[in-house]
């Protein structure tokens, strides 16, 4: 006999009970959405599957992702005004050269037969020696040596002769500088060319660069055949200059001295050197915590030519950076004496012996020492008295430029009064005592200068019928001044492109100098060119200058 729960009737009953139990269970159990189950399909799959999910509750869309954060506002360049200032100036004097189709060849440099060329074997060198790799750390406000991962900029300036220039990240500022001052470069090259080809010259061709910055004036002078003496008090900029000198292969011609130029011997601090590799670095009487300090010397205390270029007691003759202890015990001792006398309030103009000082002709003197130009000019008194300087170009004004020469606590009006008085005294001495004529070169104050002359009835036409109506602005032209062969160099190429124009200029009448200086605040920045009046070669240089 079968057990009762093994019969078919009970088995069917259990199946029916299980079926109805499931119906009851799913009828009261809440159904999870595909979103909750994580099984939702894409719209394409849904459309391919027909409307098989129409009976499901709607799926709630996910929240859209948050929008990306707004880009950080660009950091404003704290020196934007300086950059705009440089761009405005460069727009005044920009020059476009035709593209080079071939690399320039070495020029057929002309030297009179009376000059003996020196041929010396080159010394072996350590390329990164002489503090060449020192640079300024703007974040830490300190000076240190370059690390292996750091890089330098090296570019070419179209200075004709073109030169390489090194920079610690501000090559564009150097280009702006050249665009702004290229007429001064042309004037310097013209002056050096005339003196280089002079058969009567028996001394080295010399250019002095007071306030060298990146050394571009010195590089161009060296590439043009001159011996250049550059003053640069900023440690990191001296390394930049040294780098450029080596690349341009003019180490035998250029010397860099670690001094600032002033009318005495002092130890001073510097400020502003963190801008564009120190582009506006200046002496500061009031900043005792500066990362850079320097010693000042007078221009008539430049080391002698022999000390700079031929003195060879433990120093290679091609060593570019020269420090006091490398100039011999007599010169170094005189510097220390000058510092001591200055602290005691004693006169220092006769501290440096003539026998160790530069007493050869200086054919071009450029002064740009960030406000201390008047003091620098006064410090060259022995050179002017001995008629050793032929041509001077200096950045000049406006009077607020000279405020840095005064210590704190002096009223602004009193500063300007003293500055203008010093300015008039120094220029009057240049004109009357030292025999210089003064000319004004293009700069930001150029239009105001021309307007000043016109307003005061200046007429340089001497009654001639000038077709353009111009009676004030002169143009200095390049010409074949000695009848000798062309040199086929880049300077001749520059003159061809510029229709032989070296620079525009306006003579400053001696009887109007004081009035011009009284209005210098409204006129603005100018460049002054002082030329030796009774020099035969000055007359050659300026022979083709006129309206």
Structural notes for this entry:
There is one protein chain. 35% of the residues are buried. Strand 6, helix 7 and strand 7 (254-257) form a beta-alpha-beta unit. Helices cover 33% and strands 15% of the residues. With 547 residues, it is α/β, with parallel strands linked by helices. The protein has a 10-stranded mixed sheet with strand order 7-6-5-12-13-17-14-16-15-18, with helices on both faces. A 4-stranded mixed sheet has the order 8-11-9-10, with no helix packed on it. A two-stranded antiparallel sheet has the order 1-2.
What descriptors fit this protein?
alpha/beta, 547 residues
Summarize the model shown.
With 547 residues, the protein is an alpha/beta fold. It has one domain. The protein is built from 17 helices and 18 strands.
Residues in helices, as a percent range: 25-40%
The overall number of domains is: 1
Basic shape: elongated
- Spatial order of the strands in the main sheet? 7-6-5-12-13-17-14-16-15-18
Q: What is the terminal-to-terminal distance?
A: 144 Å
Q: How do the strands and helices of this protein lay out in sequence?
A:
Elements: H1 8-28, H2 34-37, H3 43-48, H4 80-92, E1 134-137, E2 142-145, E3 153-157, E4 163-167, H5 171-196, E5 206-210, H6 216-223, E6 227-231, H7 235-247, E7 254-257, E8 259-261, E9 267-271, E10 282-284, E11 293-297, H8 305-310, H9 329-343, E12 364-367, H10 373-378, H11 381-385, E13 391-396, H12 412-433, E14 436-441, H13 446-455, E15 474-477, H14 490-497, E16 501-507, H15 513-518, H16 520-523, E17 526-532, H17 536-541, E18 545-546
Parallel strand pairs: 5-6, 5-12, 6-7, 8-11, 12-13
Antiparallel strand pairs: 1-2, 3-4, 9-10, 9-11, 13-17, 14-16, 14-17, 15-16, 15-18
Helix pairs in contact: 4-5, 5-6
InterPro entries: FkbM_mtfrase (IPR006342), SAM-dependent_MTase (IPR052514), SAM-dependent_MTases_sf (IPR029063)
Organism: Absidia repens
Protein name: Methyltransferase FkbM domain-containing protein
